[in-house]
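Predict the 3D structure for this chain.
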Amino acid sequence: MKTTFDLPETLVQEVKRIAKVRGTTAKEIVREALLRAVDSNVLIYAFLSDSEFHHQAESVVSALAIAATPWAIPWACVHEFYGVVTRRSLFPAGPSPVHVVAQLDEWFRSPSLQLLSESRNHWQTLAGLVGSSEITGPLIYDAKIAAICLDHGVSEFITVDRDFGRFTALKVRSLFD
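Done. Predicted structure below.
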């Protein structure tokens, strides 16, 4: 499916200017502006068919995976997803590691998926988030994910975790919206 839309000429010129400064193309700038990322909890709900929010999460992840526009999963969310769904104290009869890896492989086959990791500027972005939100303790892991998303130009982070709302630089959308 191909979608087209008209942009005001002033906006087109500004995108071209930014692309020239960054040494990239206007198309890539627009693609970055459309980049959505998903949190581990969305992946967990999408994977576990007996979860309360399975159908909503599966619908969102499936739509992202088949769309031509880019979407992303931070590697930290991949690791957390695996750790949660294979944790026997939470899911005694849960999926086998082989089954979990197969699901990840399926998501990774999406041609529009980008897997995000720490950038060269990660520490500066993370330190800024820590300072502005005064987080402590385990919330550093949410700040890490937020910093990764910000450094990669994520335009929307889809999650169920309300704690991400404290990072005002990151646009957060609830799975339930």
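The mean pLDDT is 90.
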